[in-house]
Task: structure prediction
Amino acid sequence: MEETLKHLSKPELRTILKIQSAALKAVDSFMYSRGILHLMPVMLSPVTDPLSHGVYDSSIIYLDQKLELTKSMILHKQLVMMSNSIPGVYIVSPNIRLESEECAKTKRHLIEFSQVDIELPKASSREFMDFTEELFSYVFSFVKKECEKELKELGREIKLPKKPLKVFDSSELRKKYGEDFERIISEKEKHPFWITDHYREFYDKEDPKTKKHINYDLVYPEGFGEALSGGEREFEFKVIKRKMLERKTDLSAFAPYLSVAEKGLLKPTAGGGFGVERLVRFLTGKEHIKDVTLFPRVPGEKIVF
Ligand code: AMP
Ligand code: MG
Result:
């Protein structure tokens, strides 16, 4: 309790919140200028992101229906994109992921966070990466300009990266640095960069010939680690079902989603999402993600408010 009150009364909190407000305003302006539509989040649904790593169960029972608390809005984004008239969507979506206690070590995991989740119709992975690079450049330069005083107070300099950002292939990085490649290269690099081709959830597209995963992570430099994950999406029922079975997914848990896929209604899209708290941590240069959240939810730590 005392620690929480101390945290909430730090004068630095205003500085951090000003930077967060500027960053979110820049995201909204950029999206609006591109005609990308702003959706409200969904918090409860029979289906949510299966995630590619284990988390504690966060389902609830309402009347006689089991509902999941949203882990990400990926499946709902795909459902919205069924409409041919939608030019692209984004949501600032609360995500609940009851991460294991070990995740606290990374200093960038919370059990509740906000994700700016984006999906673009018919986009290729390179098109989505270009879009993201323009979005991040816009956000970085807006914050640099609007929050000059706040950044000075924090002793933080925001560097504007030259586009296109560097792209690394995950298998090459693994060969060079081993399993911990993301941390190692994030510590070496001076600007954000991409790592492509990750094995993960069924919905990220796989090249049928090369078996490479047509997906990407944007990674912050200076050891701040992963910023955004995304990919082109699978939309064909047969492929989705095969990949779910390969991942030992309980098909019955995704019945409504699978029935939409079986009707051939899903469309080719590409998208991705980035955590607001991780972005603010990077912009402010703070060591721990909890330093930039009002009511920290660190894996394994008791929640006070
Ligand atoms: P994912 O699709 O799981 O990679 O999540 C998308 C983005 O959300 C990540 O790239 C992070 O920026 C952010 N994120 C994911 N998990 C967490 C977490 N436990 N705490 C804070 N941010 C997270
Ligand atoms: Mg990720």
Remarks:
- Residues 129 and 263 are 30 Å apart (CA to CA).
- The mean pLDDT is 97.
